[in-house]
Amino acid sequence: MSRYRVGTALAATHRGLALATVVVAVSAAVAGVMALRVPTVWTGLLAVVTAMVLARRARAFPLVAEVLGLLSATAVVTTALTVVWLESSDPAGPLVALVVLAAAPSGGVGGGTRRACASAAPPHG
To answer: What are phi and psi of 73, to 5 degrees?
Structure first.
């Protein structure tokens, strides 16, 4: 198989993956916004989890179109969540959710923490 054919196949695969990722991101954003049409504690938590999953998955994709699609969907769900909670009587809800979203550790933090703890631990003898 020639390099040209491999490059063409890889480009077609990336286009398909980017399109599928954007479609799933739009679907998840619509689901998060639709869940907030009837604001309850559970729909609010569902929207927070949806936004967290979208933001975390953006790190796993190499193409700009995929990352922008996922981060845009995260922004849509977070904005809808903030608007719904600002209309409610309890302003503490959006603050807690936004702090959780902002403070969620990135994927590499867990591995770095494990390595640091392992190197600080006494050797097994």
So the answer is: -65, -40
